[in-house]
Design goal:
One of its GO terms (biological process) is proteolysis. Helix content is 18%, strand content 34%. The protein is α+β, with helices and mostly antiparallel strands. It has an eight-stranded mixed sheet with strand order 29-30-32-31-33-34-35-36, sandwiched between helices.
Length: 657
C-alpha cells in the first residue's frame, strides 16, 4: 500500500469513535450539557464524561474528567449549576450518586449517599433541591433473616421497589454527613405498593406525577399506573386508566394535565406490548382523557411539555423526528422529515430554544443548539475512506414491502458481483439506519467488511419499528419463518441485479438478530457462513430461562405448555438435522435477557451434526461489554470467520487474536 493511500477505519478506530448522548439545554438557552463516551484503551474501559457547550465562548469543554464517570446532566432552573450522576465506591461496589457542580467550579459536591444508588432525578422548580428515584431500604426483617440464615431470595415474592425521595442541597452542604446523612433525605413513597419508573414535578412545585408498576418484575413493565402526589399534604391519588402504560410522563405548564404513552389492551396480540402506543392527555380537573394524535401510525414518546406545546419524538421508517404537539393534534416539525435521526432532545420551558443529538446519512452523531451544530465528531473520518449507506427496498415472497440499508465501497462497481454479508438488527421492534454509529453496532465491523471486498445488507424485516403498527404485528406467531423470507428475498434481489454472488453470502446478528441468524443456520443451506450473537435458539429454553417470559408469549401468543406447536415451528433447533452451515456462536455469560443455555444448545446440536462451529463465551458480559477490548475481540472473530469461510483466508489467529 502506498504511504498516502487512504484506508477504511480499523476495528480499534471504529470503537474509538466518541458516542454522544444525554443532551440537556440550560433554561436560558445559552448552554448545552451532554455526555461523551470514549474508549480508554489503557484501562480497557469506556469512560463517560459530561461536556458543556457555552454559546458565549462558542466552544465545548469537559465538565468532568479523569477516571470518574458521569452521566445524565441536568441544568439547574437558574442555569448556573449542573447536577449529574457519578458512581461512588462504598467498598463493595459502585453505585450512582447525584453530584452538583457549578460550570465554573473545579469540584462537584456529592449530594446523595444511597446504598443501592440513584437511577433518575430532577430539579425542584426553585432549584433548592432534587427529587430522585432509588430502591427502598432493606427491611429489618430481611436484615435479621440474613443474620440468622444467610442470604436468599424468594423469586416473585420479594422486591426492592424504587421509591421517590427529596433532598435539599443547602442542608447537605451544612450538615456533617457522617452524623446527619439521613436527616436531609425525605422519603416520599414507601415502596410497599408500587415501583416508581418515571416522574415529573409541576412548575409550581406542589405536585409530583408518578409512573409506577406493581413491582420491578419485567412482567409488570407495561402495567403502569399513574399516581399524583400532593407534596405538602403527602397525599397520593391513584389514577386508574385501562390501558398499557410505560415510558415518560410530564405535566402541562399550569399543572392541570399530564401526558404519557398509552396502548390499548388487546385480547390476543401484544397483550403486554407498548410499541403500538400513542399519546394520551389526562385532565385532572374533570378526569377527561384526550388523544390528540388520532391518525399517527407510529410509537410516540413525550419528552417535555413547554409553553408552546409538547416536545415529542417518533420514528418514521429510518428517520427519528421531533416536533411540538398542540392539544388540538397539530404538530410543528422541529426536524427535517427525511435524512434525520434524532437520538435525544431537550427544550427550554418557554419552548424557544432547543438542543438535540442528530445523525444524518453516512455520518455519526453531533450535538446541535437551535439547529446550529456545536460539535465536530465527524472530523474523526478525515483522511479515511468510508462506506456508502443507502436505503433499498424489495418485496418478500408474500408481497410485503421490506426496506434495508445497503453499504457499499466508495469505488463500487455496478458490473461486479460482490460477496454479500447480511447483518440483522435486534429487537425485533427496532431497525437499522443509514448512519454511522458504534452505539448501534459494536459487534460487526462493517467498514472492515467493506475493505475486505464485501457489500453489507441490513434488512428491516417484519416486526421492525417505524413502519406502522400492521408491519410491527406482521411477525406474530410467525417468528423466524417470515424473518427468513424477508432476509432471503433481499439477498435474491441483490443476486438478481448482479450485485451479489449467490454462492458467497453470510449472515450474522445479535439478540433477536442472533435468533434470525440461528434460524438461517439450521433452516437454510443458502449461506456459506453464519454468526449467532446472543441469540435465541429454542423458544422453550428461552421461555423458562429468560427474565422476560412475557416477551415470548407476546410474540408467540401463548406459553409452550398450551401451544407447543408454535414453539416448535419457530425454533432454530427444530431444524438442526438439516444444518450444514459453519456457525460462530458468541454469547455474554451473564445475559439475562437471552440466557446462555441457548448458546450451548445450538453448539452441541451443530457438533452432533458435524457442522463446523465455535462457541465463544464472554466472561462477565451481559448483552454488551464495558471493555473496548472485548468489542475488538467480537469484531475480529466475526471478521476472521467470514473472511475464512467466504473468502478462503486463513483463520490461524482466531483464538489468540
Amino acid at each position: 500500500m502506498k504511504r498516502n493511500e487512504k484506508t477504511y477505519l480499523s476495528i480499534e478506530e471504529i470503537i474509538s469513535i466518541p458516542t454522544l448522548s444525554d443532551t440537556n439545554i440550560s433554561d436560558d438557552g445559552k448552554n448545552v450539557a451532554f455526555v461523551k463516551k470514549m474508549a480508554n484503551w489503557k484501562d480497557n474501559i469506556y469512560r463517560n464524561h459530561v461536556w458543556v457547550y457555552e454559546k458565549d465562548k462558542g466552544q465545548c469543554s469537559p465538565l468532568t474528567t479523569r477516571d470518574m464517570d458521569s452521566s445524565n446532566p441536568l441544568w439547574s432552573p437558574d442555569s448556573r449549576a449542573i447536577a449529574y450522576l457519578s458512581p461512588v465506591d462504598d467498598g463493595h461496589n459502585k453505585k450512582n450518586q447525584i453530584f452538583v457542580k457549578s460550570k465554573d467550579d473545579y469540584r462537584g459536591v456529592q449530594i446523595t449517599d444511597e446504598k443501592e444508588g440513584v437511577s433518575k432525578f430532577k430539579w425542584e422548580p426553585t432549584g433548592k433541591g432534587l427529587y430522585y428515584v432509588a430502591p427502598s431500604k432493606e427491611s429489618k426483617a430481611i436484615k435479621k433473616r440474613k443474620e440468622l440464615y444467610g442470604d436468599f431470595h424468594q423469586i416473585g415474592k420479594e422486591y426492592q421497589k424504587n421509591c421517590l425521595y427529596y433532598i435539599e442541597i443547602e442542608k447537605v452542604i451544612q450538615n456533617d454527613k457522617d452524623e446527619h446523612e439521613n436527616s436531609v433525605v425525605n422519603q416520599l413513597t414507601d415502596g410497599k405498593d408500587f415501583h416508581v419508573h418515571d416522574f415529573d414535578i409541576s412548575n409550581d412545585g406542589k405536585k409530583v406525577v408518578l409512573m409506577a408498576t406493581p413491582s420491578p418484575n419485567m412482567e409488570d413493565y407495561n402495567n403502569g399506573v399513574l399516581y399524583i402526589l400532593d407534596i405538602k399534604a403527602r397525599k397520593l391519588q391513584k389514577i386508574t386508566i385501562d390501558k398499557l402504560l410505560a415510558g415518560n410522563v410530564c405535566f402541562s405548564p399550569d399543572g392541570s394535565k399530564i401526558c404519557y404513552s398509552a396502548s390499548i389492551r388487546e385480547k390476543d396480540y401484544y397483550k403486554t406490548h407498548i410499541q403500538d402506543s400513542t399519546l394520551e392527555i389526562y385532565d385532572m380537573n374533570n378526569g377527561e382523557l384526550i388523544q390528540p394524535l388520532t391518525d399517527f401510525d407510529s410509537t410516540v414518546m413525550p419528552l417535555q411539555w413547554t409553553a408552546k406545546g409538547i416536545l415529542i419524538r417518533w420514528q418514521n421508517k429510518t428517520n427519528y423526528l421531533i416536533g411540538l404537539l398542540s392539544e388540538n393534534g397539530s404538530v410543528e416539525m422541529l426536524s427535517d422529515k427525511v435524512d434525520s435521526f434524532i437520538m435525544d432532545a431537550s427544550i427550554t420551558r418557554d419552548g424557544n430554544h432547543l438542543s438535540y443529538n442528530k445523525a444524518i446519512t453516512n455520518e455519526t452523531f453531533e450535538i446541535y443548539l437551535d439547529d446550529k451544530k456545536i460539535t465536530s465528531e465527524n472530523s474523526f473520518f478525515k483522511g479515511k475512506l468510508k462506506s456508502n449507506r443507502e436505503i433499498i427496498s424489495w418485496q418478500s415472497s408474500d408481497g410485503f414491502e421490506i426496506e434495508g440499508v445497503l453499504s457499499t465501497p466508495i469505488d463500487f462497481d455496478a458490473n461486479k458481483k460482490y460477496p454479500l454479508l447480511v447483518v440483522v438488527h435486534g429487537g425485533p421492534a427496532w431497525a437499522s439506519f443509514p448512519i454511522f454509529s458504534n452505539c448501534f453496532n459494536e459487534k460487526y465491523p462493517i467498514e472492515q467488511f467493506i475493505e475486505k471486498g464485501f457489500i453489507v445488507l441490513e434488512p428491516n424485516y417484519r416486526g421492525s419499528s417505524g413502519y406502522g403498527n400492521e408491519f410491527l404485528k406482521a411477525n406474530y406467531r410467525k417468528l423466524g419463518i417470515v424473518n427468513y423470507d424477508d432476509v432471503i428475498s433481499g439477498v435474491d434481489q441483490l443476486v438478481d441485479k448482479g450485485m451479489a454472488d449467490k454462492d458467497r453470502v453470510g449472515v450474522m446478528g445479535w439478540s433477536n438478530g442472533g435468533y434470525v441468524a440461528a434460524f438461517c443456520s439450521t433452516f437454510s443451506s443458502r449461506f456459506k457462513a453464519v454468526s449467532v450473537g446472543g441469540g435465541i435458539t429454542n423458544w422453550r429454553t428461552q421461555y423458562v430461562n429468560t427474565d422476560i417470559p412475557y416477551f415470548t408469549r407476546t410474540y408467540l401468543g401463548n406459553d409452550p405448555w398450551n401451544d407447543p406447536e408454535v414453539y416448535t415451528k419457530t425454533s432454530p433447533m427444530t431444524y438442526i438435522k438439516s444444518a450444514c452451515t459453519p456457525t460462530l456462536i458468541q454469547h455474554g455469560e451473564q445475559d439475562a435477557r437471552v440466557p446462555i443455555p441457548n448458546a450451548y444448545e445450538l453448539y452441541q446440536g451443530l457438533k452432533d451434526m458435524e457442522v463446523d462451529t465455535e462457541l465463544i463465551i464472554f466472561k462477565g458480559m451481559a448483552y454488551s461489554s464495558n471493555q473496548p477490548g472485548i468489542n475488538v475481540a467480537i469484531m475480529k472473530q466475526n471478521l476472521m470467520w467470514f473472511s475464512h469461510y467466504i473468502l478462503g483466508e486463513s483463520m490461524k489467529d482466531f483464538r489468540v487474536l
